[in-house]
Every structure is written in structure tokens, then in C-alpha cells.
Amino acid sequence: MADQIAVTARLTDYIRDVSLREDEILRELRAETADLPGGQAMQVPAEEGQLLALLAGLVNARSILELGTFTGYSTLCLARALPAGGRVVTCDITDRWPAIGAGYWDRAGVRDRITLRVGDACATLEQILAEEGPGVFDLVFIDADKANYPRYYELSLALVRCGGLIVVDNTLFFGRVVDPEAQDADTEGIREFNARLRSDERVEISMLAVADGITLARRRPA
């Protein structure tokens, strides 16, 4: 039986050639983001944005929560996947970087589907839970600071409906999760999250060895 293959740069190019459907608006936003400090590392790959849109469609999402907006590439992918009347609530610690994406959201005609919440993510999630109650989102995408992943996950699990999906980015964290010398808060946060999820019977899980590691957690029906 074949094991996981090593994805070389040449193979990545092939995958993008035969499967990626990134249009001009997305390409321009990705290019502008790449020129920012840390932009290439912090932005989701184009094929991951496409996967997010596909997942949103598969769960028939009408209400999506995103933790970590940055310049809004993934936000745009998710908003485009929604039907008329759908919403993306995207959360970031600052409005500096999302302001870059806002013009692209306008060009794509989905600005009215997107609500930006600025501030501490845990406080924002607690506020949404108090305002709207549990189970109000069909899909949650977590891509914020890694040290707080365990806290974000618990709040997200309360906010996603039964049968809904939580998508968690960077769960392999540049390979640092298996480096015993990596003891920083972000790596430890990812390790704690991964270990906790493994035994969490409230969800069905699958960790994908693509991009920087993507974990899918479907909240089990009640």
C-alpha cells in the first residue's frame, strides 16, 4: 500500500495546473499580500482557499465564522461560496490588514455578506455566544494565533451547529510539532490542540497532510 508521498515543488505546480481555479481578483489579492511582511507565510495557499469554498458548499453553509482574517483571501473564498443572504463573520485583532481585502470583497460583489469583528478573538466569540446563542454557524475556520487554539476550539464547538464543520489551519505548524526543541507557546498550543482533539468524542476528525496541516472536525449530531 502506498504511503503519503512527498510533495515536491514540481508536483505542487502540477496540482495547481490541473485543479486550481483562482480568478483575477483572488490572484491580485494574493500577490498584494505576498509583498507584505510575513505575507507569504500568513496567507492561506490558493488551493486551500478553494478547498474551504468546497467544504462550505458540502455542508450547505449559510453562516460561517472565521478566526484570523489577515488580508481576507480566505474570507473572500468563503463569502463567494455562500448563497444569497449568507454571512461570514470574520474576526481579527486589528482592522489594518482586513482593510486591504475590503476593496477586493467589493470588486467580487460579496462585501454585504462579510462582517468584520475587531478585538480579542476569545472575547469576540464569547460575545457572539451571548448575543446569538449556541449552534448558529454551519462552518468555522480557525487560523489565528496558535497559542490560543485550544480556547478557540472550545468556543467554536459551542458556536457550530450539530453536523457542522470546524476547519483548523496550521496543525502541523511548519513541522515544528515533531521537533522536541520547539517549545514556544504557538507550537505548544498546536500540540495541545491536536492531542485534545484526538480523544474528543464530540467530533469526527481527519487531519490532512496538505499545506501546513489542515484538520477537519465535524460536530457529531446530538
Key structural traits:
O-methyltransferase activity; single chain; alpha/beta; Rossmann fold; Cation-dep_OMT; seven-stranded mixed beta sheet; transferase; 222 residues; 9 helices; methyltransferase; 43% helix; S-adenosyl-L-methionine
Compact description:
The chain is of the alpha/beta class. It has nine helices and seven strands; from the N terminus they run ααααβαβαβαβαβαββ. It has a single domain (9-219), classed as Rossmann fold (3-Layer(aba) Sandwich).
Spell the H/E element sequence.
Answer: HHHHEHEHEHEHEHEE
* Rg estimate, integer Å: 17 Å
Could you tell me the number of beta strands?
Answer: 7
Major β-sheet profile: 7 strands, mixed
Q: Give start-end ranges of low-pLDDT stretches.
A: none
Round the mean pLDDT to the nearest integer and report it. 96
Named CATH topology: Rossmann fold
Description:
This is SAM-dependent methyltransferase. It comes from Nocardia terpenica. Pfam families: Methyltransf_3. This protein has one domain: Rossmann fold, CATH 3.40.50. Helix content is 43%, strand content 20%. The chain is built from nine helices and seven strands; from the N terminus they run H-H-H-H-E-H-E-H-E-H-E-H-E-H-E-E. Strands 3-2-1-4-5-7-6 form a seven-stranded mixed beta sheet, with helices on both faces. The protein is globular.
Task: Give the topology, please.
Layout: H1 9-19, H2 24-34, H3 39-42, H4 46-58, E1 63-67, H5 73-80, E2 87-92, H6 98-108, E3 114-118, H7 121-132, E4 137-142, H8 149-159, E5 160-169, H9 185-198, E6 203-208, E7 214-219
Parallel strand pairs: 1-2, 1-4, 2-3, 4-5
Antiparallel strand pairs: 5-7, 6-7
Helix pairs in contact: 2-6, 4-5, 7-8
